[in-house]
Write a structure and sequence with these properties.
29% strand, 9-stranded mixed sheet, alpha+beta
C-alpha cells in the first residue's frame, strides 16, 4: 500500500466529500465500517456537536462507525442523519439484535457568512458524502466541510482569507498517525516550524488587533473541526487523551486558538491493529494536526470574494 500522507493511510478509514460550490458549504464523512474506538476533545467555547457525550470513556458504546464534519452551523448537524441512513443500508452499526444502529458523532463549523446562508448541509448531502467515501487519498482545499471555510476574521469577512480541508500523516515504525481538518479559525495560520504567518487577517495580525481592544463579538463565525486517526490499539480513555494532545497542533499553528469565538472540536479514532504508546501517538497527533492545518490554507483556492493561496 502506497503511503500518501493522508488520513486514509490508516487502513479501514475512508473519506468522502460532498459540497455545493455555489452556496459554498459542504460536509466531509470519515467512515470506519468495522468500527473504531473513539474519543473527542472540545476546546473551543462555541461548539456545535452531536453524540459527543457517547464518547465519554465511562459510557457504554466502545466504537463508532463514522464521524461527520459539516458546514452550515447547527443546521449542518442534519448531515449525520443521512450518513446513518447510508450505513444502515450497508448493515453497519451497533448490533441491537432487531436492528443495527450506526454510531455517528458530528461537529459543525459556521460558514453562513459566505455563499448562500439559506443553503446548508442536510441529510441528502450527508448520504452523498458517505456514498462517495473511499480509501483513496482525499481531496483537499475547497471541498467538503472546508468549502466555505475561512481564516483571519477578527475584522470581519472583508479582511479574511479562504481556507479549506487539509490532511497529513506520518508512519512511525508501522504505527500510522494521521489527521484531517476543516479549518475555519478566527485567528491567523502560522508555520509551526518558523513562526511565520502564512494566512489570516489581511490587515495586520489578529493578536495586534486584539491588543487594541478590537476583539469583535460579531466574529462568532469560526471553529476548527477535525479527526486524528491511528492504527494503534487504544482504549476510549486513551483515544480521548490523543484527541486532547492533538489540540496542541491547533495551538502551534493558529494564533490565537481556542477562543470564545471558536468551537474547536477534535475527534480521535483508533482501529487497533498495532500496539503503541499512547503518549507517542498523542505527540505525533499534534504534529500531523499542525501540518494538516497548514495544508488547509495552502490548498485553498480563492472563492466567495476571499483570496486563497492555491494557484493552479
Amino acid at each position: 500500500m502506497k503511503f500518501t500522507h493522508t488520513l486514509t493511510d490508516v487502513r479501514g478509514i475512508e473519506v468522502g466529500h460532498a459540497q455545493d460550490e455555489q452556496a459554498l458549504t459542504g460536509c466531509t464523512v470519515i467512515l470506519c465500517r468495522e468500527g473504531a474506538v473513539a474519543g473527542v476533545d472540545v476546546r473551543g467555547s462555541a461548539p456545535g456537536t452531536r453524540e459527543t457525550d457517547l464518547l465519554d470513556p465511562i459510557n457504554l458504546v466502545q466504537k463508532v462507525h463514522a464521524i461527520v464534519l459539516a458546514g452550515g452551523s447547527a443546521f449542518g448537524l442534519d448531515a449525520a442523519t443521512g450518513v446513518m441512513r447510508y450505513l444502515e443500508e450497508q448493515e453497519v452499526g451497533f448490533d441491537m439484535r432487531t436492528v443495527k444502529v450506526p454510531i455517528v458523532p458530528a461537529a459543525i463549523l459556521y460558514d453562513l457568512d459566505i455563499g448562500h446562508a439559506s443553503v446548508r448541509p442536510d441529510s441528502a448531502m450527508g448520504y452523498l458524502a458517505a456514498s462517495r467515501a473511499s480509501s483513496a487519498p482525499p481531496a483537499e482545499g475547497n471541498v467538503g466541510a472546508g468549502t466555505g471555510a475561512s481564516v483571519g476574521k477578527m475584522r470581519g469577512m472583508k479582511y479574511a482569507m479562504k481556507s479549506g480541508v487539509g490532511t497529513w500523516s506520518v508512519n512511525i515504525s508501522g504505527v500510522i498517525v494521521a489527521a484531517l481538518v476543516a479549518l475555519n479559525a478566527i485567528g491567523d495560520v502560522m508555520d509551526p516550524q518558523t513562526g511565520a504567518k502564512i494566512a489570516g487577517l489581511r490587515s495586520g495580525s489578529t493578536l495586534d488587533w486584539m491588543k487594541k481592544g478590537q476583539a469583535r463579538a460579531a466574529s462568532q463565525s469560526n471553529t476548527v473541526i477535525g479527526v486524528v486517526a491511528t492504527n494503534a490499539r487504544l482504549t476510549k480513555a486513551e483515544a480521548t487523551k490523543v484527541a486532547q494532545m492533538a489540540q496542541d497542533g491547533l495551538a502551534r499553528s493558529i494564533r490565537p486558538a481556542h477562543t470564545m469565538f471558536d468551537g474547536d472540536t477534535i475527534f480521535a479514532l483508533a482501529t487497533g491493529e498495532r500496539q503503541a504508546d499512547v503518549s507517542m501517538v498523542g505527540a505525533f497527533a499534534a504534529e500531523v494536526m499542525a501540518e494538516a492545518i497548514v495544508r488547509a490554507v495552502k490548498m485553498a483556492k480563492s472563492a466567495g470574494g476571499l483570496p486563497g493561496l492555491y494557484q493552479e
